[in-house]
Amino acid sequence: VTWVQGAADSPYGLHHLPYGVFRHRGWVPRIGVRIGDFVLDLEAAERADLVLAGGSLRRSVLNDFMGLGRPQWRAVRARIVELLTEQVHRPAVEPLLVPVTEIELVLPFAIGDYVDFYSSEHHAGNVGQIFRPGQSALLPNWKHLPIGYHGRAGTVVVSGTDIVRPSGQRSTPDGPVFGPSVRLDIEAEVGFVVGVPTRLGDRVPTAHFADHVFGVVLVNDWSARDIQAWEYQPLGPFLGKSFATSVSGWVTPLEALEAAWVPAPEQDPPVLDYLREEQRRGLHLELAVAWNGTLVSRPPFDTMYWTPAQQLAHLTVNGASLRTGDLYASGTVSGPERGQTGSLLELTWGGAEPVTLADGTVRTFLEDGDTVVITATAPGPGGATLALGEVTGRVLPAR
Amino acid sequence: VTWVQGAADSPYGLHHLPYGVFRHRGWVPRIGVRIGDFVLDLEAAERADLVLAGGSLRRSVLNDFMGLGRPQWRAVRARIVELLTEQVHRPAVEPLLVPVTEIELVLPFAIGDYVDFYSSEHHAGNVGQIFRPGQSALLPNWKHLPIGYHGRAGTVVVSGTDIVRPSGQRSTPDGPVFGPSVRLDIEAEVGFVVGVPTRLGDRVPTAHFADHVFGVVLVNDWSARDIQAWEYQPLGPFLGKSFATSVSGWVTPLEALEAAWVPAPEQDPPVLDYLREEQRRGLHLELAVAWNGTLVSRPPFDTMYWTPAQQLAHLTVNGASLRTGDLYASGTVSGPERGQTGSLLELTWGGAEPVTLADGTVRTFLEDGDTVVITATAPGPGGATLALGEVTGRVLPAR
C-alpha cells in the first residue's frame, strides 16, 4: 500500500503509474509519474539517485526512457513502487510530490511518425454506409489487412490544446468553395507509443508487440468531414485531418494493462500468416465521449477487429523501420450500437439525426466553443480500475 | 571566379553551392558545401570564424542552419562566395577542402513530416487510365486542389542507400497472397525542404513561399505497385510506399535556382483565391532517369500543373504548422510523352510494353540488382548549368 495520501483507492494508484511531462513553477518541463492526485518529479528523483535510468528521466520528453526497453521499464516501475510504498523512502520522496492541480502537462514525447488505422468493423461499416450508400459497406481489402495511413506528426498536440476550426475546400453543387469547415468531427481512438526502434528492413512479428510498445494514450483525431470527403480520392485523407490530433498527457505503460487483455473478436476469413496471433488479444478499455459535459457515447475498445499486435506487424511487414516515439492509433472506436460510436458522423448518422445535449442545445457536428472530453477506464489487478489520461479540446472559431 | 581548381566550369560552381552533410575519416558527420569536385568543411570554417552562422554549421544536420531564414541563408552564401573567390582567404580555406571522392554523404537534415503531392497532370492522367480504364482519367477534385498525402518520414534515406525489395499483400484472382513485391517501381520527383517553421494555425500564402523553403532535393519515391493497388482504398497509399524514399545528399539552395524559374502552365478552371499566384512560376528542371545505365526517360519539371508555392499554400491552409526539416515532394514528374515519364508503371504502360536496356535485357518493373539513378539539371545565371545532386539506389532481394 502506498503512503501517498488518498492514492490507494485512486484510478491512479500503484497499479497504474502513468508517465507524463509537466510544467511547474516555470521549470523546464520535467518527466513525472502520477500517483493519486500527485506527480512524482522523476527528474529530481533521478538526480537524487532515488531511481536510476541512465539519465533518461532527466529530459523534457519520454523518448530516451522509452528507448531503453522492457527490462528497464519494468525495473524503473518496480523501483517507483518501492519508493511510494516503503516508509524508509518517504522522507526523501515526499518533497518530490507535486499536486496535479499545480502542474500543466505538455506533449509527453517527441512524435516520430504518426500512423492512423481504421480497425473497427462497426466504424468502417458505418462510414461505408454513410459515404457510399447502396454499396457494400466494407471494401474488399478490409478483412484482409488493417487499413491505415500516415498522419501529420507535427500537429499532434497535448490534451487541453485549443483546436482552431480549420478552413479548406468543400464540394457544393456549384463547385468547390473555400471556408471554415462546416462538419467538424472527432474520432475517439486509442494510441500505441513505440519505445524500442527497429532497423530498416526488420519486421515485428505479432508475438514481439510488447518488446516494442511502451504504452498507451487516448487520441482524438479531429476530422473535418467536408474537407476530407472532397480531397480523399485517390490518396486518402490529408487536410481534413492534418490540422490537429490531440493525445492525452499521461502515457499508461503496458505493464499497467496486464489485467485488461481480453480475447479479441474472431476473424473470418482467416488472415495471412504474418497477421496470425497465437492468442488474439484486445484491450478491455471502456471509452466515454462527453460533449459539452453530456455523455454521448461509450465506445468499447474490445470490439476492435484488428489488434494492436496485428497493426504493428502489418506496419513493419514491408521492412519499414520504427523510431522511438512513433505513434499508431487504432482508428475510431465504435461498437455495434449507436451510443457506442467514436465519431459524431456516426452518432448523428451523417448529420441526419441530431443529438440533444443536457443543456437542451441540439447538435450535429461541433460548433465553436464546444468542448469534447474523451476518457477511458480499464480493469486493473484484483478488481481495481484504472483511468487513462483524458484527452480534451475546445473548438475555437476559424481565423 | 573561384580559385578552386576546375570549379569554374563545373555544374557545382559558385552559382550552385549545394549543402550536404558528409562523413570523412571517421569524423562525426559535418556540414559542407560543394564547390567543383571538393567539399568545403563548414564545421571547420565556422570554428575558425571564417563564416558566422551562430554555430548552426557545427551540427550533423542542416536543420539549425535551415531554421535561420532567408537573410541569414543569403549572408552565409555570400560569405562562402567571398571565401572561395578572394585570394586573401585561400591560405585559410584551401586546407578545409576535401575531395568529394573521399567523402560519404549522409541524410542532410532530420525530416519533420514528409508529404507527397500528385501534381503532374500527365502522371495523374496516365495512372488514371492504367488503373481505372474506361473512366475519366482525372478525378473531379484534381484540378481544384493539389492532391497529396503524408508519407513515412522515418524511412527517408539518403541517395546510395540500398533498397530491400518490400514484401506485402497483393491481390490475385484466388484472394490476397503475401510475398515480395512483383511490381517494384520508382517515382522521380523534386522535393522542397522547409527551413522556417510556422505556428499551428498559421497559413503560408503563395507569395511567402521563398520565406519558408530553404532548398530543393531530388527524390525517388520507391513504390510497390501491387501492394499499393490492393491497400490504397479508401485511405491512400501506405505500405506500398513506406519501405523507403530516397533523397539526394545535396540540397540546392533556392538562391541557386533564381535563373530556373519559368512560367507554369495555365490553370483551367481557375483556382480558388488561396491558390492564386500573382505570377505562376515553375522550375525549369530537366530530370533524367537511368536504369542500369540506360537513359530511359527525361521528365520535364516545368510541365507540373501545381507549383511548389501552391503546394505549400494548400498544405498549410487548414492551419497545419510547418517544422524545420519538413519535406514535400512534387509527385511523380511526367511530361506528355512516353519518354518523359517519371515512373516505370507509365513507361511500360502498366507492364504491358516492356523496355529494352542497353545491355539487351528486357524490363517491365525493377528486378533484384537493378540500379536507378535520377539526375537533373537547371539553368544557372549567364547561361551556366547546374546539376542537382543525384539520387541513386540499388534493389536488393527481399529478406
At a glance:
Chain A has helices spanning 42-47, 63-66, 70-85, 90-93, 121-131, 209-212, 225-231, 308-316, 344-347, and strands spanning 19-23, 30-35, 38-41, 97-99, 104-106, 114-117, 148-151, 156-158, 163-164, 167-170, 177-180, 184-185, 188-194, 213-220, 223-224, 245-247, 252-253, 261-263, 281-283, 286-291, 294-297, 327-329, 355-356, 362-363, 371-379, 385-396. By secondary structure, chain A is an alpha+beta fold.
Q: What is the average per-residue confidence, as pLDDT of chain A, rounded to a whole number?
A: 97
Q: Please summarize the sheet with the most strands of chain A.
A: 8 strands, mixed
Largest interface between protein chains, with number of residues from each side: A-B, 60 and 60 residues
Question: Low-confidence segments of chain A, ≥5 residues, pLDDT <50?
Answer: none
Secondary-structure class of chain A: alpha+beta
**Total E-strand runs of chain A:** 26
What is the helix content of chain A? 10-25%
**Beta-strand fraction estimate of chain A:** 25-35%
Oligomeric grouping of the chains = homodimer
Give me the Rg of chain A, rounded.
21 Å
Number of helices of chain A: 9
Question: If you had to describe this structure to a student in words, what would you say it looks like?
Answer:
- The structure is a homodimer of 399-residue chains.
- Chain A has 399 residues and is of the alpha+beta class.
- Chain A has nine helices and 26 strands.
- In chain A, strands 6, 7, 8, 13, 14, 16, 17 and 22 form an eight-stranded mixed sheet that branches. A five-stranded antiparallel sheet of chain A has the order 4-3-2-1-5. Chain A has a five-stranded mixed sheet with strand order 9-26-25-20-21, with no helix packed on it.
- Chain A is globular, with a radius of gyration of 21 Å.
- The N and C termini of chain A lie far apart (51 Å).
- The model of chain A has no long low-confidence stretch (mean pLDDT 97).
- The interface between A and B is large, with 60 and 60 residues.
